[in-house]
Specification:
heterotrimer, A alpha+beta, B alpha/beta, C alpha/beta, B: Rossmann fold, 7-stranded mixed beta sheet, two-stranded antiparallel ribbon, 10 helices, C: alpha/beta, Rossmann fold, 5-stranded mixed beta sheet, 13 helices, 15 strands, 41% helix
């Protein structure tokens, strides 16, 4: 199963919930600021993602969407 | 590509004014997911409070009005009584619901109005700068309890749900929180139940959600979650109250 | 002989409202209008409409807010102290342009005051007791029959302009019973579509009803649009009644119960060949400025009478100051005029023994 993470980079407020609660360390803080002037979340290694959805579950900004290929 | 998670239709998906790590955004999203799942978006009417969530009508994708501070449950009574087929819910902070609006809350509950209430307990008045709220913990510092809440001066944290428990008009009360994925899932279940109760006409349902306020607690977003898990739950245990 | 029915002012407000299509009433007990809420508690349920006895007047007006935004004709009623509790809600109704009818059976004030009649809420009603720039239409019946005529009008004007309409009675008018022609209750009112109502977004885009405008200039824009509406109301909705002819030497300016008292005074003085006229505003807002100004071209003496220490006189002065002699006679704190004291005042103005 191949999982694809779609992140609305400029909506992220850098709270870190998704990174903290991801069981597979798929996510990390980006090095470049987004439009809000914060370091948003970005995908570190998509192959490790198991599609558990905890990142999207914890996101206060609904800026993470998760898709998978059959 | 099949979606595991997509933004709910009932959420507009616009940038919100909430601070980093604020619980409002999260609960808005849970409510929107529940409304999508129950397929009630087109017959739901939300009532925003006065407080940080006053702009909720910009974030939800269904009819929303905004009540005077503390009055959402009176407005909701008026709406529900003349539109019994619609799903009416109020979204209120601790100041709105348990301080200025406590009387409206008690009487709407006591009348057993068939309504859903989402009560955000973040222990402070957020929009106005972090003053003490009815739910501020003993010893907690706020801009109006600089040396920490002292019951001799500021009274005790108000156990609103436990007060409402004794009212026959009340059908369902649950206190949840947001400090972990498991808790967020339970919070969503409770929100869903509070809407289903209304759909089934079972009467007054309220879900209290312990919510982080990093800006006024002066903690990082993640520290807030730990604070809720360790401290807030001592005064406000996460449990099914009725 | 027409069939007539004996009914009190309070109950006339209630029955006329029901006949005018009032679908929601919320209220709270307060003397001297308890009979109104009691009547509504029976009749609204009997008519399959919604009645709620609220926990306070403050809750009542906010329930009205909810019913009104649902597109349902709605009414609340109270008396002076209770109306004070509704002022914030009235400001919100104005800010959201929500129609509502509010009956104030005025009593002695300030403070707890007493339960006797008064007209001392004139300022609160016509200037607005809540915050911000807004106006409420204010109608002042002086008989129980006129209550039955003005209440349906209140609902029509509320819907037509999406505005709050106040109906001002007082302790006398509310409690007094009079015979009223039954056909007055065959009420038909003009309906107005309410696309703005929140009834769920099925088949349309979601809507919101709110009065918060944070963006710079946004609220000013709203308020200027409202002011244009208020100007239209000033132009089109002024109502008054007058008993004036070319021989009139003094015009009594009074409304509601006091205007009725003046009729007795006028009859008595006519028998002494003293021609005294009456100018009775029916809309206290919009105040009948134009007509009053026209009258002052022929009559130069005005006596303003009010159960207060002088409130409506301000509006009379705005129109007539320096162009006529304006005197005031008031009774306050729930006290009522006697005809003799009014007659004495008039004779003094006309320098008659």
């Amino acid at each position: 199963m191949k999982v694809k993470l779609v992140i609305k980079r400029d909506f992220c407020k850098s709270c870190g919930f998704c990174i903290h609660f991801c069981p597979k360390n798929v996510l990390k803080l980006d090095n470049n600021l987004n439009k809000l002037g914060v370091l948003p979340v970005c995908v570190d290694d998509e192959s490790k993602c198991i599609g558990c959805g905890q990142c999207a579950l914890m996101c206060p900004e609904a800026c993470i969407e998760i898709y998978k290929e059959e | 590509m099949k979606s595991i998670y997509k933004k709910p239709i009932s959420l507009n998906g616009v940038h919100t004014h909430y601070c980093t790590g604020c619980g409002h955004g999260l609960v808005h999203r849970l409510i929107a997911e529940v409304i999508d799942e129950l397929k009630i978006r087109e017959r739901t009417i939300g009532i925003a409070p006065v407080g940080c969530a006053v702009l909720a009508y910009d974030y939800w994708n269904f009819d929303v009005t905004e009540a005077a501070h503390g009055r959402p449950l009176a407005v909701a009574t008026g709406i529900k009584r003349v539109q019994p087929d619609k799903i009416v819910f109020t979204y209120q902070g601790d100041g709105d619901l348990a301080s200025i609006g406590a009387n409206e809350t008690i009487h709407a509950a006591n009348r057993g109005e068939n309504l859903t209430v989402i009560f955000i307990n973040n222990g402070v008045y957020g929009m106005t700068g972090g003053q003490m709220a009815p739910t501020t913990l003993m010893g907690q510092k706020t801009t109006t309890t600089k040396l920490g809440r002292d019951h001799k001066l500021h009274g005790f944290p108000l156990p609103l749900l436990d007060m409402l428990k004794v009212l026959d008009g009340v059908c369902y009360l649950e206190r949840r929180s947001l400090f972990s994925p498991a808790e967020v899932i339970k919070a969503k279940k409770a929100i869903s139940k509070s809407f289903i109760n209304q759909i089934d006409g079972l009467g007054f349902s309220m879900v209290e959600i312990l919510s982080p306020c990093p800006t006024h607690w002066k903690m990082s977003s993640l520290e807030c979650l730990t604070w809720i898990e360790k401290e807030v739950t001592k005064t406000y245990p996460v449990e099914r109250v009725k | 002989m027409k069939r007539r029915t004996l009914i009190s002012g309070n109950e006339a407000f209630a029955e006329a409202a029901i006949r005018a299509g009032c679908g929601f009433y919320a209220g709270y007990p307060i003397t001297p209008q308890n009979e109104l809420i009691e009547y509504m508690s029976r009749r609204m349920i009997a008519e399959g409409k919604v009645f709620v006895q609220a926990e306070s007047e403050l809750a009542s007006i906010n329930m009205i807010f909810g019913a009104s935004l649902s597109g349902v004709r709605c009414m609340t009623s109270s008396s002076s102290p209770g109306i004070s509790l509704m002022q914030e809600g009235i400001s919100y109704l104005a800010g959201c342009e929500l129609p509502a009818v509010i009956v104030n059976v005025m009593r002695g004030g300030p403070g707890l005051g007493n339960i006797a009649p008064s007209q001392a809420d004139y300022f609160q009603s016509t200037r607005g007791g809540g915050h911000g720039d807004y106006r409420t239409i204010v109608l002042a019946p002086s008989t129980v029959a006129e209550i039955v005529k003005l209440t349906p009008l209140a609902f029509e004007l509320a819907d037509k302009y999406r505005n709050v309409v106040l109906l001002l009675g007082d302790g006398i008018l509310g409690q007094m019973m009079e015979a009223v022609d039954e056909d007055l209750f065959d009420i038909k009112t003009k309906e107005y579509p309410k696309p703005w109502a929140l009834r769920g977004c099925e088949g349309r885009a979601p809507q919101s009803i709110k009065s918060l405008y944070l963006a710079p200039g946004a609220l000013e824009e709203v308020n200027l649009r409202l002011e244009a509406k208020y100007n239209q109301i000033r132009e089109e909705e002024v109502r008054y009644q007058e008993l004036i002819d070319k021989n009139t030497r003094v015009v009594l300016v009074a409304y509601g119960t006091v205007a009725r008292l003046c009729r007795g005074v006028i009859r008595k003085l006519r028998s002494e060949n003293i021609n005294v006229g009456l100018f009775r505003p029916i809309t206290l807002w919009p105040f009948p400025n134009q007509r009053l100004s026209e009258i002052s071209k022929t009559v130069k003496k005005f006596l303003v009478l009010e159960m207060s220490t002088g409130q409506m006189i301000d509006d009379v002065r705005i129109v007539l100051d320096r162009s006529a002699e304006i005197e005031f006679l008031g009774r306050t704190g729930g006290s009522i005029f006697s005809e003799d004291e009014i007659i004495a005042k008039i004779k003094k103005m006309l320098k008659i023994k």
